[in-house]
Amino acid sequence: MLTAAACGATDWQLVLAAALHKKQALHSRRESQPTIKRLNNQQLNNMEHSMDRKIEQKKGIRRAFTKKALPFWGGALLLVFILWLIFRDDSKKLRIDADNITVSTVTSGEFNDYIRISGQVAPMTTIQISPLEGGVVQQIVTEEGSRVKAGDVILILSNENLDMQILTSEADLAEKENILRNTMIQMEQQKLSVEQEKLQLQMEVQRNRRTYEAQKSLYDDGLIAREDYLKAEEDFTLSNSRLKLVENRAKQDSLHRSVEIDRMRESLENMRVNMMMIRKRKENLTIKAPIDGELGLLDVVLGQSVGAGSKIGQINNLDSYKIEAQIDEHYIDRITPGLEATFERQSERYQAQIRKVYPEVRDGKFKADFKFMEQQPENIRSGQTYYLNLQLGQPVEAVLIPRGAFYQKTGGKWIYVLSSDGSKATKRDIKIGRQNPQYYEVVEGLEAGEKVITSSYDNFGESEVLVF
C-alpha cells in the first residue's frame, strides 16, 4: 500500500513539475512577444486539463490571405492581365544611333512654287543635210564646226552608175537627133518630089487645055471628027483630076510631115531635158551649204557609201537659239507655253519663256523648248547646259520641311516625328502637296516647330517607333 501511494505521489510531482516548466516558458514568450495576450492561471489550468482549443476568426487585412480569398485573387490577376493586353504598346520599336540620321525642324514660311531643270542650247533653226543623190564620199571639203556661207562646198560624192546613165542618155540623144535629121531629109525629099509632080501636072493641064480648046473650035467649025474632039476633052479632064489629086496629097503630106516633125522635135527636146536632169544629178553629188551658219554635224568618212535622202549632217542658223529641256512627267499637267524661267550665266541673270511643249512622254520625261525673252548670253554655243528655275505659281504661306531622302521610301505619306524630349521618334501620317528644289509643302499632319527625320529610311524596316 505504501509502495503504491509512493508511486502515485511521484507521478503527481512529475505532472506538477511539467506544468511549472511550461508556465516559465509562457512567461519568457510574453517577454519576447508583447503582442501576444497574457494567459492567467485559470486558462493555464484549462489548457492542462483540456485537449481542444477554440480558434479565433481573422479580421481586416488578414482575411485577404486566407484560403477563402484565393478565388478573388485569381479574378483580380485575370482582370489585370486583360487590361494589360488592351492597353499594352504593340508598336514595333527599333533602337538606332542618333548620329546617323538627319533631324530637321518643321517651319512656317513662304513656299516658292518652282522647279529646277536642266536644258541644252540648240539653234532655233536647223537645216538637215541630205544628199539628193547617193554615192561614195570622195572628198570632205569643210570640217565639222566650221562657219559656212550659202553655196560653200561641204563634200563631194562619186557615183559610177550616174556617170553611165549620163553617157547612155547622151548616146540616146545623139541617135534620136540623127533619126530626126534623116526623117526630115526624107520628108523634104518627098515634099520636093510631090512639088515636082505637081508642076508637071500643072504644065500638062495647061497643054491639054490648049489642045481641048483648039479641038473644040475646030469641031465646032466641022473641021475635025468628033472622036478627036472627045479625046482632047478627056485628056484635059484627066490631067486636071490628076492635078487636084496631087495637090490634095501634097496638102495631106504637109500636115502629116508637120505633126511628125513636131512630135520628133518634142521627143528630142525631152531627151535633152532628161540629159540635163541627169547632168544636174551629177551636180547634186557636190553637197553645198543651203544657208549661212555653222556646220554643226558631219557624220561621214572618206569612202563611205551614202544613200540618197540619208542624214549626213546639219547646219545651224546662228541668228537665234533656244533651250531644250527634259521635264519629269509629274509636271506635265502644269507646264504650258508662256511660263517663265530664270537662269544665271557668268554672274548675269537671264529670262526665258516656254515656246513649245511636246506631248510625247519618253522614259518618264517630256520635252519643252524655251526662247530667250530679252537678250541671250554672249559666246553662246550649241550643246551648252543651262540650269533653269521654272516658275509654276505664285509664292504662298505654308508649312515647310526640307527635302530629304525619306521621300523615296514614304512617298510623302508618312514621316518619323521626334518626341518632345527627343528620346524617340514615332511614325505619323502626313500629306505633302507641292515641292521645290529646297522644300516640301506640308498640307496636313505636321505643325511648325516639330522635329522630323528627313534622312533615308531604308534601314528602319517597318518600325513604328525609333528609340535613340
Give the ordered list of helices and strands: HHHEEEEEEEEHHEEEEEEEEEEHEEEEEE
Task: Tell me the structural class.
Answer: alpha+beta
Task: Count the beta strands.
Answer: 24
State the name of the first-level CATH class of the largest domain. Answer: Mainly Beta
* Helical stretch tally: 6
- Strand arrangement, major sheet: 4-13-16-15-14-17
Q: What is Rg? A: 64 Å
Distance from N terminus to C terminus (CA atoms, Å) equals 99 Å
Report the CATH topology name of the largest domain: Elongation Factor Tu (Ef-tu), domain 3
CATH architecture title of the largest domain: Beta Barrel
How many strands, which pairing sense, and closed or not: the largest β-sheet? Answer: 6 strands, antiparallel, barrel
Dominant shape: rod-shaped
Domains, number: 4
Indicate the proportion of strand residues: 25-35%
Question: What is the percent of helical residues?
Answer: 25-40%
Provide an overview of this structure:
By secondary structure, the chain is an alpha+beta fold. It has 4 domains: 2-52; 93-111 and 394-467, conserved putative lor/sdh protein from methanococcus maripaludis s2 fold; 116-156 and 294-391, Efflux pump adaptor protein, beta barrel domain (Elongation Factor Tu (Ef-tu), domain 3); 160-283. The protein is 39% helix and 28% strand. It has helices at residues 2-32, 41-49, 70-87, 160-221, 226-283, 406-410, and strands spanning 93-95, 103-105, 107-111, 114-123, 126-129, 135-140, 147-148, 153-158, 286-288, 293-298, 305-306, 313-316, 321-328, 340-345, 348-362, 365-372, 385-391, 396-402, 414-418, 424-429, 431-435, 439-444, 451-453, 465-467. It has a 6-stranded antiparallel beta barrel with strand order 4-13-16-15-14-17. Strands 1-24-20-19 form a 4-stranded mixed β-sheet, with no helix packed on it. The longest helix is centred in the middle third of the chain and has 62 residues, at 160-221. It is rod-shaped, with a radius of gyration of 64 Å. The relative contact order is 0.16. Mean pLDDT is 80; it is low at 1-12, 31-41 and 48-52.
